[in-house]
Amino acid sequence: MKRLVKGFLATCCLVMLATVSVSAHGHGGGHHHGGGGSVQYYYCGGHSAHQHTNGACPYSGNGGTSCWKHDGAGWWYCHADGSCPKQCWQQIDQKWYYFNKDGYMATGWLKDGQKKYYLDADGAMATGWRKIGKNWYYFNGSGAMKTGWLTQGGNKYYLKSDGKMVTGKKVIKGKTYVFDKNGACQKLKKLQKKASVAC
Ligand SMILES: [Zn+2]
């Protein structure tokens, strides 16, 4: 996790990681698209959708409160001091999100430097296995898409340079390997073709 934070710090323009103290609120369950249009909905401190009349949150006591906000164009986030992350990663409730240059929460594929990440539909950075479209991908603990060999649970998997998990036959560095439909590289006793190399 240490490495993760470092990596993100380097790309984050409005970092407040050290000072962020976000109370548990139901962002995940709070996606509510009612209203639409340009009306802004706020989700602060776990409260359901509400509006900030005259810019004030009805749920904030002294000072502000951190909030997810939503309008017709998407979601964004603001800290209690009113600053909102833009063009950077932000950890909120143990999950990482990426906010684009306009401050909107990103979803889907994201290229950051040489690394590729995937943000789930709720904006949370993917880690571990994900099926995206027709293919399986693997994202390490810091969210970076894995390529090459991956050993897990006693099996070896191979992720192509575009991240797609290999199934069936695959020539890797001149050797032919066989992967089952779940991507596990086959061991010798399961191999039928002698031309293939065992994992
Ligand atoms: Zn509010």
What integer value in Å does the Rg equal?
Answer: 22 Å
What small molecules are bound in this structure?
zinc ion
What is the typical, i.e. mean, pLDDT? 81
The largest β sheet comes out as: 3 strands, antiparallel
Helix and strand composition category: mainly beta
The strand line-up of the biggest sheet is: 1-2-3
The percent range for strand residues is 25-35%
Q: In total, how many beta strands? A: 13
Helix count equals: 1
Q: Pick out the low-confidence regions.
A: 1-36
CA-based shape: elongated
Protein model, in words:
It is a single chain. Helix content is 5%, strand content 32%. With 199 residues, the protein is mainly beta. The chain has a three-stranded antiparallel β-sheet, with no helix packed on it. The chain has a two-stranded antiparallel sheet with strand order 4-5. It starts with a helix and ends in a 20-residue tail after the last strand. Mean pLDDT is 81; it is low at 1-36. Bound molecules: zinc ion (ZN).
Summarize this, please?
A hairpin with a 2-residue loop joins strand 8 (128-132) and strand 9 (135-139).
Supply database-style keywords:
199 residues; mainly beta
Question: How are the SSEs ordered, and which strands pair?
Answer:
Elements: H1 2-11, E1 41-44, E2 67-71, E3 74-78, E4 88-92, E5 95-99, E6 108-112, E7 115-119, E8 128-132, E9 135-139, E10 148-152, E11 155-159, E12 168-172, E13 175-179
Antiparallel strand pairs: 1-2, 2-3, 4-5, 6-7, 8-9, 10-11, 12-13
The structure holds zinc ion (ZN).
